[in-house]
Amino acid sequence: MNFLVCISKTPDTTAKISFSSDLKTFNSAGVQYILNPYDEWYALVKAIELKEQLGGNVTICNVGPLDNEQIIRKGLAIGADDAVRIDCEPLSSMQVAFQIAQYAKSKSFDMILLGKETIDYNGSEVGAMLAEYLDLPFVSYGSKLDMNGNVATIERDIEGGTEVLEVATPFVVSAAKGMAEQRIPNMRGIMMAKSKALEVVAPAPFEDLAVVDHYDLPKEKSSVKMIDPENMQELVRLLHEEAKAI
Amino acid sequence: MSVLVYIEHSKGHFKKTAFEAVTYASKIAQQMGTECIALVLGASDHLSDLGNYGANKILNCSASIFSNFDSQVYSNSIAKVANDNGANLIILANSSNGKTLAGRLSVKLKAGSISGANKLPTISGNSMIVSKSVFSGKGVANYEIKSAIKIISLMGNSIKPEQVANNATVESIVIPTATPKITVKSVKTEEGTVPLPEAELVVSAGRGMKGPENWGIIEDLASAMGATTACSRPVADAHWRPHHEHVGQTGVAIRPNLYIAIGISGAIQHLAGVNNSKTIVVINKDPEAPFFKAADYGVCGDLFEIVPRLTQAIKDFKQSH
Ligand SMILES: Cc1cc2nc3c(=O)[nH]c(=O)nc-3n(C[C@H](O)[C@H](O)[C@H](O)COP(=O)(O)OP(=O)(O)OC[C@H]3O[C@@H](n4cnc5c(N)ncnc54)[C@H](O)[C@@H]3O)c2cc1C
Ligand SMILES: Nc1ncnc2c1ncn2[C@@H]1O[C@H](COP(=O)(O)O)[C@@H](O)[C@H]1O
After folding, report:
1. Which of the two ends of chain B, N or C, has the fewest CB atoms closer than 10 A to its terminal CB?
2. A222 touches chain B (CB under 8 A)
3. CATH 3.40.50.1220 occupies which residues in chain B?
4. What ipTM did this prediction achieve?
């Protein structure tokens, strides 16, 4: 089976976030970037596990500039076979999905895996859009996936529970926690990654329909009010009268 | 012109998120001077309730095919209704199914789409500015949607459902559908509790609890308050609590009215999922715990003494109110 895994780059959660003085752009200087955890830990590792079980090839795909090759190499070190980078700045979910779709149409993938969302913008949109461009079924928030022939049984997270479903390849699936066990790249993987193929393709023309106009900083939290641990009546009173939370 | 709001239900019953979505859609429709149409796929006996929150027209296709969630079948149907009714804005709940549909619909209808909107958009002419919380609550992004058709999925607890005089019409419709490629085998949801993403009150506990056997005091507090329980990631990883209770960057992101964090240190990855809560109470024995910086109210001390005391205070309060 041929697997395509879409991977993205995101600021580390602990990164300090700042914007330009006119609030129009995000300041990326000095920000520590990582491979998006859902893509790395769950989508990519699941594809590798399935390949180990069933044979085939795992390709990783990123829409992004040259700098992103660092995270692509990490994906190769974890165990992907080859990679493609679509050479443009990702500006919207739809543009990313469109670019990946153009590439995927020229190949034949049995399964396309994504993370459930990127942890910076929490869009959770690219998977559904990509599936629509390719006219394929899409299963979001998969937390378990077993193959039986060409039919997958997938458990997906829904509000307050899980849904179990079946779908035949080809399909698109997004991965949530539980889908696979995180793997740490070893020295051999890192060495091998250097010689794996990383194809760079030019983007197709695309016009964005929704883009960031400007940013705001979140409202400052007023400082915490400490309550005497002996006096929980006081906390309840404040929650009722002041916070109007109960 | 119209605003179409897609309504989720569970076996015909509407949850709070459905009424939030209708309230949101109807307020925008009023501002745009157009009607608010609610669409329900699958059978429901409660259709006219949606009129209580401002829907002018309620469309329902009760075909049994909709008891099986297949995003292709669903999004084809919603797109058809959107086209038939000249919808230039589609509102969905920012739920696992809602986000899936929003993505498909945006490609199908060439509509700019924003997921996780946290307040009403600013409308000027044909453009709309929609805001959402980004970078784990460390920023707000304001997106401009420029396309003729626009799609917004609404983050839970972002607007209060508002009752209005009901003058809605209910119409049943037939939508041609193709055979689904996805077959749903089973759906398991926790009965009797409000799912976390929809909960207004959340009581959450972390590793400070020492072990799963101590969770009785958390459950007592939650049930005294009518709250849903949550936990930090190490607690779910150690199987002290079920996986769906895990909140944070790798778990569920929530924004309840009240989040009570008990024996949780407040690591940034935890805060990422909860710092949009309206009011945060932190109970921790360590005065240096980072969570206090994100809290509105803090109680410093031993949770095993404080939590039962708080439960009693809540019970006393409930009796006298
Ligand atoms: C990439 C990544 C993603 C992550 N995603 C998540 C996520 O989604 N959600 C999440 O929660 N974490 C996540 N984490 C883990 C996170 O960094 C923290 O390790 C975790 O949140 C800590 O859990 P905790 O607060 O329960 O435990 P601890 O950090 O061990 O804190 C326990 C707290 O309990 C207090 N305490 C102990 N005993 C008592 C007592 N008797 N009375 C009162 N207070 C007491 C202590 O003072 C301490 O503050 C992630 C980490 C990484 C690296
Ligand atoms: N620039 C990108 N290149 C490749 N894949 C991406 C990119 N951005 C997002 N994705 C994939 O789409 C998933 C969902 O992203 P999002 O819709 O932005 O939350 C991510 O987890 C990735 O798997």
Report:
1. C
2. yes
3. 196-320
4. 0.93
